[in-house]
DNA sequence: GTTGAGCGTT
């Protein structure tokens, strides 16, 4: 899992953001890191996700430390075939705070004018860039959900990176590209990435509540009774009730 | 399990 974006933007003081479009919905930040890190120092990778489904929205933000390296990555990775789709890499035009940025870098407001001059309201920034594009729907099949999600913010974030890596890397991709990526990936992760991505599956000892119902449903053994009244069952009672083998987790 | 123009978060 990626250590990027674990607690918000780390340091965007002098970084250059790149917008990566047309990536697959299963591509994670860990998949993009070995590609982009080859052309420079990547300080952050962020993939916006849907509020409700938690799925990737199909694009990512890669922040470089230096502009020339970011430019290099744009020239090299733009149009590259990643996971079967040609990605589009370009400099971000808007910052995390919806502020227009120049060549991927946050526009520098003069320290002098930033002191007392507050003749501009912070809300105008968002309205500025939102105005050009009224609709922000990503996909037509999700427009109907956006209506409810637009005024409903009770959506809770699920896990940041789900088990998207279940896909096999050697599926139908051209081994030529993947080979180079992986080859450099081995060398790249030798510096500090190996410590940041520990085990691929290390779940907390805390039992996942929502998953248990599914496992019980698909369990080969028939569940005898649901015992709707005994919802608040003690751990000991549940053991006698389900007596099902461990679902795996 | 699907989708495909676009600009971002504990």
From TrEMBL:
Gene3D superfamilies annotated for this entry?
A: 3.30.70.330
Drop me one GO molecular function for this one: RNA binding
Basic and acidic residues: which segments have biased composition?
140-164, 174-187, 211-228
Q: Which InterPro entries match?
A: Nucleotide-bd_a/b_plait_sf, RBD_domain_sf, RNA-bind/splicing_reg, RRM_dom, RRM_euk-type
Give UniProt keywords alphabetically.
mRNA processing, mRNA splicing, Nucleus, Phosphoprotein, RNA-binding
Q: Which Pfam families match?
A: RRM_1
SUPFAM superfamilies for the chain: RNA-binding domain, RBD
Q: Where is the composition biased (Basic residues)?
A: 113-123
Compartments reported by the entry: Nucleus
Record's compositionally biased regions (Low complexity): 193-206
List the residue ranges of the region (Disordered).
100-249
Q: Where is the RRM domain?
A: 16-94
> Which GO biological-process labels does this protein carry?
mRNA processing; RNA splicing
**One GO CC annotation:** nucleus
The protein in question is named: RRM domain-containing protein
Lineage of the native species? Eukaryota, Viridiplantae, Streptophyta, Embryophyta, Tracheophyta
């Amino acid at each position: 899992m990626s250590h990027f974006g674990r607690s918000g933007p780390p340091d965007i003081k002098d970084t250059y953001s790149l917008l990566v479009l047309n990536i697959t919905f299963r591509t994670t930040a860990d998949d993009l890191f070995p590609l982009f890190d080859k052309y420079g120092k990547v300080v952050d990778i962020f993939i916006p996700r849907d509020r409700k489904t938690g799925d990737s929205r199909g694009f990512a933000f890669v922040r470089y430390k230096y502009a020339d390296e970011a430019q290099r990555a744009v020239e090299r990775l733009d149009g590259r075939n990643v996971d079967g789709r040609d990605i589009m890499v370009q400099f971000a035009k808007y910052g995390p705070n919806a502020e227009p940025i120049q060549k991927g870098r946050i526009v520098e407001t003069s320290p002098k004018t930033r002191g007392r001059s507050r003749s501009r309201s912070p809300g105008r920034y968002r309205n500025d860039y939102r105005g050009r594009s009224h609709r922000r729907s990503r996909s037509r099949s999700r427009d109907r959900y956006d209506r409810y999600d637009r005024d409903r913010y009770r959506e809770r974030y699920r896990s940041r990176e789900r088990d998207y890596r279940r896909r096999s890397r050697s599926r139908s991709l051209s081994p030529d590209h993947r080979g180079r990526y992986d080859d450099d990936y081995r060398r790249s992760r030798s510096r500090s990435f190996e410590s940041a991505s520990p085990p691929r599956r290390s779940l907390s000892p805390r039992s996942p509540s929502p998953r248990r119902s599914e496992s019980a449903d698909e369990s080969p053994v028939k569940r005898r009774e649901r015992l709707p009244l005994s919802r608040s069952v003690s751990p000991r009672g549940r053991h006698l009730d389900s007596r099902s083998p461990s679902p795996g987790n």
